[in-house]
Amino acid sequence: TKRAAYLHAHGGGCMSLSAADVRKSVQCIAPDLNVVVFNVDYRIAPETKCPNNIKDFYEVIKYVSKNADSLGIDPAKIVIAGESGGGYICLGAMVLLAENNETNLVKLAMPAVPMVDDYCFSDPLPMTKEERQAHGSMRKVWGDLIAADFEEQKSSPYLFPGKASEELLEKFPPTIILESEFDMFITEASRLANRLRRAGRLLEFVVIPGGTHMSIWVPGTKTNNDLKDTIKTIAKEYIHS
């Protein structure tokens, strides 16, 4: 029996960590969701700049789809996901899929607590506490590390997927965005969720109550248990249905 595939992009702000660093936590996904997990080791900044980071993940999607038979994968059940910086990688790959009319390759996209757009460059006064605390470092991450040329790329959805046009959003794969109540990316993720809902591509926008950017990943915490239960429900309702 061919199985669903779960392509995962690790966190780390696109500038740290590797697939090996998250291997133990990602391994739990396979039995919990009854999927084959592909833990993607995309290239990170500063050595690799946008858009080559998102292209790495995009090419893995294409490879798994093209070689589904030999990999024992059901090509109609390919899921892409990622958290934080990996959420951005997932969203960036969705932009590429939309541009190339390849949305049909993916059954479901699940970016979690994702880096989405340039909200950190706006006035910090109306930001949440978490957003204000992170906005300075995030400006450096986007401007100095991820972007190849910030001024040239600042309007590109390759760098900021939240700036994708309405036409591109309408071609995105069916999407579930996972967020935490007190995440430092909650505003930008909420804005993208609203735009995807209007474009008819949002399945769910899930906010874990009481969660922060990191707490939902800490085993044994209530927020982590809530996240696991949510993902299991998603698998039942949207992946294996």
Category from helices, strands and their pairing = alpha/beta
Low-confidence stretches: none
Let me know the average pLDDT: 97
Q: Main beta sheet, described? A: 6 strands, parallel
What gyration radius follows from the Cα positions, in whole Å? 17 Å
Helix content range: 40-55%
The helix count comes to 10
DSSP summary, beta strand count: 6
**Alpha carbon gap, first and last residue:** 15 Å
Tell me the layout of helices and strands.
Elements lengths: L2 E7 L13 H5 L1 H5 L1 E6 L11 H15 L1 H4 L1 E11 L1 H15 L8 E5 L16 H18 L3 H4 L12 H4 L5 E8 L3 H14 L2 E11 L9 H18 L2
Helix pairs in contact: 3-5
How would you portray this structure in words?
This protein is an alpha/beta fold. It has 10 helices and 6 strands, in the order E-H-H-E-H-H-E-H-E-H-H-H-E-H-E-H. It has a 6-stranded parallel β-sheet with strand order 2-1-3-4-5-6, with helices on both faces. Strand 3, helix 5 and strand 4 (108-112) form a beta-alpha-beta unit. Helix 3 crosses helix 5 (85-99). The mean pLDDT is 97.
List keywords for this structure.
single chain; 241 residues; alpha/beta; 6-stranded parallel β-sheet; 10 helices; globular
